[in-house]
User: Fold YHS domain-containing protein from Actinomarinicola tropica.
Amino acid sequence: MPDVKDPVCGMTIAEADAVATVDHDGSTYYFCSQDCAEEFRENPDDYT
Ligand SMILES: [Zn+2]
Assistant:
């Protein structure tokens, strides 16, 4: 199981532990919490 990085808070998490995912520009991003996912959805260009 690969580890992935939450781009909002910078935390590394196991893909299986991701609480939320967001598809953006053809990539899937993984988040530790709904709050991080929400932040990303609002400002995706700040994190990509
Ligand atoms: Zn996070």
Remarks:
- The beta strands are 3-5, 12-14, 20-24, 27-31.
- The mean pLDDT is 96.
- The pocket of zinc ion is lined by residues 6, 8-9, 11, 31-33, 36 (CB under 6 Å).
